[in-house]
Structures are given as structure tokens and as C-alpha cells.
Amino acid sequence: MAFGILNNINALQAEAAVNNTQSSLNTTLQQLATGMRINSGADDPAGLAIANGLSANIAALNQSVSNANDGVGSLQVADGALSQVTSLLNTAVTIATEAASGTVSSSQRDSLNSEYQQILQEINQIGTTTTYNGTSVFSATTTSIFLTDANSTSTITNSVGVLSSTSLGLTTGGVNTSLAGTSGVNAQAALTAIDAAIQTVANDRGSIGASVVRLQDASAVMTTEITNLTAAENNIMAADIPSTISNLSRESVLSQTGMAALAQANSQESSILTLLH
Predict the structure, then answer these.
(1) Cα–Cα distances in Å, from 88 out to 84, 85, 139, 193, 201?
(2) Most buried residue, 119, 139, 146, 177, by CB count within 10 Å?
(3) Where are the beta strands (DSSP E) in 118-273?
């Protein structure tokens, strides 16, 4: 091989090796600093695309779990309100049973009826003022709970329905059932309506309970899916710390030896000067 000064091939080769080592060392240091194997698209384009897709799925599922929990919360508020309505109706049964007795006077029935009308008003009040997140709980509108994992969607619907003395059959044609009268006939008729209302509320609570269970089951499934997808994303994105530290040690040594080799290659050129003496 000719011995000249036009190009220092050894130095160029050593410089290229040092640059490659330094690039790998910078990548390794970034992985250790962030804890992530992929910090840019250049690190693993395919892996980054997959991880981003998984991240979108996880975000959608997390919000869907929140949607399901909101649905459960709304239904539980409705169930609590209906529990209070049941208590009121049980009180109404006691009052109506007393008013139906032939030993009660007309004035006493009037007093009992006054209490009974207050119960009906309270039921109406519960139906119109019970809200969840600013929205009326008892409504004829069907509530749709939107669930998605960013790839497929599903909707769980439920309808609590309107709650009022009318919807419970305690008011007909705008006229409330009444316990008043000279005999217990009206009270007996009201008692029949109250018993039917109690059954209606029980059925409504059963339907609500079934919807709550369905939403809770859906939430549990999505939570499991979030865990699995997060694990998959972590496998793609997370740096293998022991392996990365091993790479750091190797690249640090290569960087030092490369710099030494580059210095040695450059020093060889100076030996030509001895020919000029």
C-alpha cells in the first residue's frame, strides 16, 4: 500500500466507527433517561405505530369505563330515590288501611287524606327534582351509555322512566286518589292503587338493578382489557434496563477505544515528516 498524505484512510475509518458508536451511545443514554426503548419514529417505526394504536385503544377504554361508572351512578341515584318512594307508599298503605276502617269518622278520614295527599306531592317532588350531574334522573328519554375501544363500539341503553303519582296510577285524569268520604270505600280503592304502585316501583328497581349489573360487568371487562393492552404497549415501548445498561458499558468502552484509535491514525501521518529530515 502506498504511503502518502493525500488521504488518511485509517483515520477516516476510525472516525466513522467513532461516530457510529457515539450515535448508539446517545440512543442508549436517552433510553436510560426516559425508560423508553422507542423515543422517536426512527427508533422503531413499526413498533411506534403499533404502540400508538394501543395507546388510543387504552384512552378510549378508560373513558368508556368512566361512561359506564357515570351510568351506574345515575341508576343508583334513581334506585335510592325509588327506595324513598317505597317508604312513602308503605306509609300510605298504613294510612289508607286506617281510613278504610268503618270505625273512623269522616273528619278523621279527611285528616288522613290530607296526610296522604302530602305523600303524593312528595312523590311528585322526588320525580321532578332528583338529578344526576345536572340531568333529571326520572325521564321518558332513553339514556345511552357509549362504550368503545377505538376500534369497535357498543351502546348500553336504559330508561328509568317518569316518576309521578300519575305514572304510579295514584292520579287519574288529574285527580288524585282520595281517602276522604263518609265511608271507607274511597280508601279501599286508594289502597288497591297503592298496592299496585308498590309493585310498579319494585319492578322498576329490579330493572334498574339489572342495568347496574350489566354496566358493572362491562366496566370490569374493559378494565381487564386496559390492563392487557397496557402490558402490550409497555412491552413495545419500555426499555429493557439491564440490557440497556450492558449496551452502555460496551458503547462507552468502544467510544474510548475508538477515540484512541483515531488519535493513533492521525499520529501516523506525522511520521512522514521524518522523511524530510
Answers:
(1) 6, 5, 21, 14, 11
(2) 177
(3) 131-132, 135-136, 143-148, 153-158, 171-172, 175-176
Q: How far is CA 21 from CA 10, 16, 252, in A?
A: 16, 9, 8
Burial of 157 from C-beta contacts in 10 A (0-12 / 13-18 / 19+):
exposed
Q: Kindly write down the DSSP assignment for every residue of 129-168, as one continuous string.
A: H-EETTEESS-SSPEEEEEE-SS-EEEEEE-----STTTT
**Cα–Cα distance between 244 and 24 in angstroms, integer?**
11
pLDDT tens digits for range 229-246: 999 999 998 887 788 787
For residues 153 and 146, give the distance between their C-alpha atoms in angstroms, rounded to a whole number: 7
Between CA 169 and CA 188 the distance in angstroms is 15
The CATH number that domain 46-234 falls under is: 1.20.1330.10
Backbone torsion region of residue 132, taken as left when φ is above 0, otherwise alpha when ψ lies between -120 and 50, otherwise beta: beta
- pLDDT of 2 above 60: no
Q: Based on C-alpha coordinates, what's the Rg of the chain?
A: 39
Domain boundaries, the chain: 9-35+239-276, 46-234
pLDDT digits (tens, 9 = 90+) for 35-81: 888 888 888 899 999 999 999 999 999 999 999 999 999 999 999 99
